[in-house]
Amino acid sequence: MTIHQNLIGGEWTGSKASENINPSNTKEVVGLYASADAADVADAISAAKAAFPAWSRSGIWERHVILKKVGDEIMARKDELGALLAREEGKTLPEAIGETIRASQIFEFFAGEALRLAGETIPSVRPNIGVEVTREALGVIGIITPWNFPVAIPAWKIAPALCYGNTVVFKPADLVPGCSWAIVDILHRAGLPKGVLNLVMGKGSVVGQAMLESPDIAAITFTGSTGTGRRVAAASIEHNRKFQLEMGGKNPMVVLDDADLGVAVEAAANSAFFSTGQRCTASSRLIVTEGIHDKFVDALTERLKTLTVDDAMKPGTHIGPVVDERQLKTDTDYIDIGRKEGAKLAFGGEVLERETPGFYLQPTLFTEATNQMRISREEIFGPVASVIRVKDYEEALSVANDTPFGLSAGIATTSLKHATHFKRNAEAGMVMVNLPTAGVDFHVPFGGRKGSSYGPREQGRYAAEFFTVVKTAYTLA
Questions:
Q1: What tens digit of pLDDT does each residue of 244-274 get?
Q2: Which of 158, 253, 375, 418 sits 20 to 30 Å CA-CA off 3?
């Protein structure tokens, strides 16, 4: 097998490689991908630093053309790239193709933003003086991405970083290097100057740590676990660098007595179990008022019986495998914890065998849970959800907000009064009414509150807040 190498200073390099395994079929090696060491990271940072002066002053049309070309190629290869995503991460093929299309849209959006860079010209309070307020690139951006969205999240970090004139050192999750390598290859061939984008694959303890320790990285944008996010923050403060964190979630989906039962069940099933529950925006707490509780549980249980768990590439599969053996053990450990805490296992919870060896887990639904249980407090990151019974809307809102996280929150209701109140009072960065908590558009801000996020929002025009620095300039007329 050909080794897919790291990209450093415009050159493909690296001979030490690791196998990329298909979680739907652990006998299949998706590819061999290079592993960088600390010296490689240092070289990548040096290359990005050297390329920054010219790239940050490059013409907006040059950036536009490159980003547009990337978006076009990703869209043209959506089926191929979607299949690669499904094979290495375990997301079903339709979901994987959808994620690839979203990545294309992100690059298209920032291709347009490159032509819309704007500032302000305002008068000074002093006579005969003009004031200009502009945005400038920061420098070398360190990008660290997770395994659950291996095309979309790299896209929504890399595209704005390049759009606004920064250079990049990019470390993808070591579980899913294939999609990241493919995106970097497309960007490289689209005409980026040497050193503007550098790819360093490998373990976080090696590659990520070397990035954190470098004083030459001006900013780091990170998506991943809460624990790692705290380490990113601590290291960044030491170097006085800008940092952006997207971390965990324990998102609530409130179902009120007046909800349309079909709408509520579909929103809950999608939120909690699609993408194998491996989304930071997934709803693992289903907070249901007592008048609809039993009907909702019965209907959701029947819906779960219709979902097919199988190979991500198979037509008709609704839920693919868990990403790897370690995550599968985490999921099953939490299922045991839920039982011991006194929650009732209403459906699922079994590890499954399929035609090919993989990490297959039934969607798992607990009832009679409380908001104090560990399964209601801690992020599981798998197809496991708990139903919490509450008296009324007021209690539902209180329970929904009783969490250290604050990424996404949803409500199923036909009451305009309750929907409006929930949108205003839910302590989350994103709120959905009669929709799944997972899934946001590419042109609007993404992010949360409390322990879920830190720093400016990602995506859309709000990305400029992180990837640029504001300059105020005075001129005497």
A1: 999 999 999 999 999 999 999 999 999 999 9
A2: 158
